[in-house]
């Protein structure tokens, strides 16, 4: 692991102490199901929008069994404010029909309808404090900027890179992954990264390149 990687990990963990956002699904005692529902919705919907409907959704559908017993129209109506409601309701209904409990093996969880590697890994890391990497487009953007060509191109190599970046314990990995998501959303924005206030500006390849061009 490079000195830059070690430094970024340490700096991000320090940043996490004051900056991680609080949402109901991030509560330490949130269940596997509660975290899964949030991550399932968060793939295509901003967190603040999910937060608006999340409590009511859990009040109405507190388990896979409740979803299984419900009429699909009720499920569609509950998800409608988030968009993609028909597709999401159909997928949740299929999951609930075929599973009493959510799988806790990454491969089985990611094979469920409309559940890809990101949702599966985020759910297991955040709910069960597993030391599992998460790689979505925001994580890719941050790592590409900070590490430049040292961040690999293939999906499998990126997942291995992200796993190596994780701190030693599952609890720390959970904090690191949450911080990475929030850092990408709050500082290393897609269009205009806040390099002047960023802890990584002295060694981030993107920021150093910008400084050299000026
Ligand atoms: S210095 Fe800029 S580009 Fe690099 S990680 Fe920070 S915000 Fe992102």
From TrEMBL:
Q: Which Pfam families does the annotation name?
A: HhH-GPD (PF00730)
* Hydrolase in keyword set: yes
Biological process (GO) annotations? DNA repair
Obligatory cofactor(s): [4Fe-4S] cluster
Q: Which SMART domains match?
A: ENDO3c
**Limits of the HhH-GPD domain:** 41-186
UniProt superkingdom: Archaea
Cite a single GO MF annotation.
iron-sulfur cluster binding
- Which keywords does this Swiss-Prot/TrEMBL entry list? DNA damage, DNA repair, Glycosidase, Hydrolase, Iron, Iron-sulfur, Metal-binding
Keyword Metal-binding in annotation? yes
The family note in this entry says: Belongs to the Nth/MutY family.
Name by which UniProt lists this protein: HhH-GPD domain-containing protein
Q: Which organism is it from?
A: Halomarina rubra
